[in-house]
Every structure is written in C-alpha cells, then in structure tokens.
Amino acid sequence: RLTNEKTFQPLGNKAFYESHGFTIDDTSLIFSASKTVPLDLDIYTYNMATGQLKNLTNSSGEWDEHSILSPSGKKLVWISSKDYNFTPDANWSKTLKTDYWLMNTDGSDKVKLTHFNGSGFPEYVAGERIIAADIAWNPAGDQLVAVRAVVGVQGSSTKIVLIRLNSSQ
Question: Is the pTM above the cut of 0.85?
Fold first, then answer.
C-alpha cells in the first residue's frame, strides 16, 4: 500500500514522463519526458527539495530515454536517436534507430558508446535497424548489459549484449 505519496510533474500535467531513478545523493529524480510529442524525449534531473529542473540532453526531435546512473554516481548511460533521421510522429516505429551514449550527471561530455546503426563500425550489420533499449550497470561500473531490438530483412528479434568500457565509471 502507498503511504506519503508525492506527485511530481515538473513539466506540467500534459507532459509524458518515464522514471529512471535517483541521483547518488538521493536528492534528485532522473527521468525522461516530453512536453509536446510523447516521443520527443529528453533526459532530466529534478531536485525534489528545491524544485530545480535540469534538461541534460536538450535535443529537440530526438528520442532520449533509459538513463541509468553509474555505480559511482558520476555518469549516466542512456539511449538516443541522435545522428539518425527520426521523426517523432505516428510512424515513429518505422524510423527509430538508437545507440547507447554516456555523459556526466550534469549533461556534459556526451560520448557515443555504440554504433549499431552506423556503417563502418564492427557492431553494424547491413540491413538491420537497431533500437537500443533497457540497460544496466555491473557493480564495478566497467560493463553494461543491454537489450537491443533488431529490425531486419529476416524479421525482428531482441538480443542481450554486453558492453565493456575502458575504465570504471
């Protein structure tokens, strides 16, 4: 049973929200949201005590979601459609491609971790469109386990992938 329930709608009651967790100091929420089109998502933090809202991705026309805090509390990994031709409309499922990205918790130093949809990279497979999805850190912060959906010429499937990082995050 719920007790002491609090509701937060920092972008207003018409926005679409998805929760992703708390900051390491337990003061702020990490979530993705869209003020307008439900699929035009950004990653935010919201300080529950001060009401300070910070847009970490600020990326109009992109799908940013599944932001997960590293064990150290210093980095966030998330999925993004950045660099791909994505249209956040009723036909989104025909254009969505995403990869995994890493950034500092203040939104700085964004680095693309995978290139599932970029030709010329080892993880790219011609004829496949990849939608990177749920992700989790290992306790040491040097590996990620993730789900990627494959939309290809031979149908659709999902795969679990292991992503090793060069150092702990």
Answer: yes
